[in-house]
Amino acid sequence: MSSWCFVLYFLLSILNVIFAFTPQTLVVVKDDFSKYTYSRFFKSLKRRGHKVTIKSVTDKSIKLQDYGESLYNNLILLSPSSKQIGDLSVKDVLNFIDDGNNILIGVDNGYSNDFLKKIADRCGIDIHSKNSNVFDHINYDVLHSDDALENDVILLSNWPQYKALISSAEEEPSAPVLYSGLGFSFKSNAHLTLSLLSGNTATYSAFRNTGDPIEKNIIASGNALSLIAALQTRKNARITFVGSTKMLSDEYFIAPVKSTDGKAYDKSGNEEFMRLVSAWTFGERGILRLSNSTHHLQTDKHADITLNPTRYRIKDLVTYTAQIEEYRLECDCYVPFTQDDVQFEFIRLDSFIREFLTHDNKGNFKIDFMLPDVFGVYKFAVHYQRRGWGYIWHEPSVSVRPFRHDEYQRFLPTAYPYYLGSASMVIGFIVFTLVFLFGETNNKKLW
Asked: What is the value of pTM for the model shown?
């Protein structure tokens, strides 16, 4: 018996390996030698289950789609100076994004205005001038400083406050990250963009060697300066721009760092942080799904429950439940979502009910409420749009009818004054009639 169990377990393990989701990731580098510059980053992707395909930017066989189907789930561009990738155009890359795929783009001072700049503009991200750089004269790496005192190799440890990226303090990198490159700004109408890494208080982006006073050269500073900028589309496609290709290099991954206050680290936090950034970019975390959405009348525990009826009556007591989970690639599974800001709305034309859903820390969300006293067609709406998390847009419809003629209350407590008024009028009329017909005054009839 035990041998059969072992064989069955072995077969199930093989099937799990075969049918497990394997992200297809295309990496485009400047030349064949460049792939060795980022070897540790590529090994990190492979350890996380990615099937990595590396091609040179001059390879004419590069294709992102074939017969309308995407050949890859993710694209990494590490050749910022190239004006073209194989025979691909900017439109091909944008179509790849529109199909719900993800892109990680490395930028440096030699970026192409004809390619990367156009993609960034469509994403609502403004790449700073090629003649600019990011500086910080307080938070810089002492080991990389030089006599010029430019302090353009800076240290950053102001981690983003997005739970989808860094879920807890234990996941934060153990050392500051090294950064040397350009900065980004967001366009005023770019509402879906977010900064995965911003500058310190003393960090600023400025033009180099213009001869003007420093205050005229500054482009952006502090929190307004983004060093890793991202966009998440409504289809949950993610595009991330890294302003320093060196952040992904082996050189910065294993470089020791030392801050100006004397704290030294044997290794920078680049490898840990870029693992988190790339995991978020490629949908390994932060992608949500809503399932098992049900609604029903509130009844006794022993009564039969009809799930998801198509019609309710005004003022019915209703329970709505749903399960929300977050995808994790490391186990190729969904884990319970436990945030407290999931909002529920009961909508006709406007929202009649708007409240937060409660949950049991196992991903099961619930709300009990009374239907409004206005009949019509309504939607149970769960629209979850928070920075960093995948978007949820769920709204099943249901009709709400008025009372039937035999369902109204016969006597309304609030109408008792009117009932008494009507009764007193009837009684008064009867008394007046009797008095008028049969009453006598001085032994004479009144009429």
From this structure: 0.84
